[in-house]
C-alpha cells in the first residue's frame, strides 16, 4: 500500500465533501448526482438517517479530512510491518459511525473486510469508492457478508452483542466495543448560547450516538426552565414519528407509574441516578460539589464516552458544549486508540 497516496486520496475525499455540502463545483458532476440520489435512498432505508443528520455527519468528516491534519495524525504511529486482513463489523445507529475505523485500518497499512450494518449500507460504500477513485492504484478493501480468513477484528455493538462477539472471536486479536454514552456537567455559569449548544449534544442524531449526552449534572440552584427555554430550537424532533413514539411511550409509562418528571412536549427530564436513559429522556441529578461528579465518572468510566462542559471542571477532562459529535481524528470510540491497536496486528 502507498501510504502517501492513501493520505492524499483521503484528503481529496474531504475536499469533495466540503464542496458538495457547500453546493460548490466539485469537478465530478456525475458523482455529485449519484451521491445526492444515494443520500435520499439512505433515508428511505433507515428513517433515522434524515438528510439533516446525514449531512451533519458528512460535514464533520469533511472538516477533519484535510491532508495536513491526516498526515499529522497518522505520523504519530508506526506503519504496519506486514499487511493483514482486519474484519470490521460496523454499527448503524448513526450515519457513518464506522467510517473512522475503516480509515484507521487502511492508513495503518492493512486491508479491511467490511461487514456493513443493514441500517447503513449505502453511504460508506460510496465513500470507499470515492477514496479509491481519488487514489492512484486504488484502495484495497472488501465488503463481505461473513468474516472469514481475518487476522484481527474490530466490532461495535450492544453489551449483549459484545459478549457473543468476544466468544466468537476469542482466537484472534480483537477490539470489541460496548454500549457507551456521554454526560454533561453544568456549573450554573453557562450562558444561553452554551445551553443551546448543549442541546445539539443531546438531540443531534436524535440522541442515538454514544457521544450524545443522556445524563446531566446540575447545581442545586439551577432552574430547569433554562434548559427547556434553550432547547426549543430542537423542538422539531417530535415531528419524527420514531422519536415521537419513544416520547409518547415513556411519558405514558412514567404517568402510569406515578414517577415524577418534567417535560416540554418533546423531551422528558427525569431526576434519576442512572447513567443511561431511554430515547427522548434525559436523566439528571443535582450536586453540591464537583467531587460528587468525579466519583460518578470514576464509577462509570467504562461506560462513559465523554464529559461535556464549559471547560472549567477542575480535574474532569471535558468536551466543550456543542462539540460532542464533532470529534477530531485522534479521538477514538470507547477511548481506545484504534491506531495503536492496529499497530500490533
Rounded to the nearest angstrom, the radius of gyration is 21 Å
Q: Please bin the fraction of helical residues.
A: 40-55%
Going by CATH, the homologous superfamily of the largest domain would be Aldehyde Dehydrogenase, Chain A, domain 1
**Order of the strands making up the biggest sheet:** 8-9-10-7-6-11-12
Percent of residues in beta strands: 15-25%
CATH architecture of the largest domain: 3-Layer(aba) Sandwich
User: What class, by secondary structure content?
Assistant: alpha/beta
Q: What is the C-level CATH assignment of the largest domain? A: Alpha Beta
Total domain count? 2
Annotated CATH topology of the largest domain: Aldehyde Dehydrogenase, Chain A, domain 1
Identify the overall geometry. globular
Which H/E pattern describes the elements? HHHHEHEHEEHEEHEHHEEEHEEH
Chain-averaged pLDDT: 95
- Tally of extended strands? 12
Give a quick account of the main beta sheet: strands, pairing sense, barrel closure.
Answer: 7 strands, mixed
Protein name: Acyl-CoA reductase
GO molecular function, one term: oxidoreductase activity
InterPro entries: Ald_DH/histidinol_DH
Organism: Elizabethkingia argenteiflava
Amino acid at each position: 500500500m502507498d501510504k502517501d497516496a492513501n493520505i492524499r486520496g483521503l484528503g481529496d475525499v474531504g475536499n469533495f465533501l466540503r464542496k458538495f455540502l457547500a453546493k460548490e463545483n466539485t469537478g465530478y458532476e456525475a458523482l455529485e448526482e449519484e451521491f445526492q440520489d444515494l443520500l435520499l435512498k439512505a433515508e428511505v432505508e433507515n428513517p433515522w438517517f434524515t438528510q439533516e443528520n446525514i449531512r451533519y455527519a458528512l460535514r464533520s468528516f469533511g472538516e477533519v479530512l484535510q491532508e495536513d491534519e491526516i498526515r499529522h495524525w497518522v505520523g504519530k504511529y508506526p506503519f504496519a510491518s506486514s499487511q493483514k486482513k482486519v474484519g470490521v463489523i460496523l454499527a448503524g445507529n448513526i450515519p457513518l459511525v464506522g467510517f473512522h475505523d475503516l480509515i484507521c485500518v487502511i492508513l495503518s497499512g492493512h486491508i479491511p473486510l467490511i461487514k456493513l450494518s443493514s441500517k447503513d449500507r449505502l453511504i460508506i460504500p460510496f465513500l470507499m469508492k470515492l477514496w479509491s477513485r481519488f487514489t492512484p492504484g486504488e484502495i484495497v478493501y472488501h465488503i463481505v457478508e461473513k468474516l472469514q480468513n481475518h487476522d484481527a477484528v474490530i466490532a461495535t455493538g450492544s453489551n449483549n452483542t459484545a459478549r457473543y462477539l468476544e466468544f466468537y472471536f476469542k482466537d484472534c486479536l480483537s477490539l470489541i466495543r460496548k454500549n457507551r454514552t456521554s454526560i454533561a456537567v453544568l456549573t450554573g455559569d453557562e450562558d444561553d448560547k452554551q445551553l443551546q449548544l448543549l442541546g445539539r449534544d443531546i438531540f443531534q442524531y436524535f440522541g442515538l450516538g454514544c457521544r450524545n449526552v443522556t445524563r446531566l449534572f446540575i447545581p442545586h440552584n439551577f432552574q430547569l426552565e433554562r434548559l427547556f427555554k434553550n432547547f426549543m430550537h430542537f423542538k422539531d424532533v417530535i415531528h419524527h414519528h420514531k422519536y415521537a413514539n419513544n416520547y409518547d411511550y415513556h411519558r405514558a409509562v412514567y404517568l402510569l407509574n406515578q414517577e415524577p418528571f418534567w417535560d416540554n412536549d418533546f423531551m422528558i427530564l427525569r431526576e434519576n441516578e442512572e447513567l443511561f436513559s431511554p430515547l427522548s429522556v434525559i436523566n439528571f441529578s443535582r450536586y453540591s460539589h464537583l467531587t460528587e461528579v468525579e466519583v460518578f465518572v470514576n464509577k462509570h468510566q467504562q461506560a462513559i464516552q465523554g464529559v461535556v462542559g464549559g471547560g472549567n471542571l477542575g480535574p474532569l477532562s471535558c468536551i466543550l458544549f456543542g462539540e460532542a459529535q464533532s470529534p477530531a481524528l485522534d479521538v477514538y470510540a470507547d477511548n481506545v486508540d484504534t491506531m495503536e491497536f492496529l499497530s500490533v496486528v
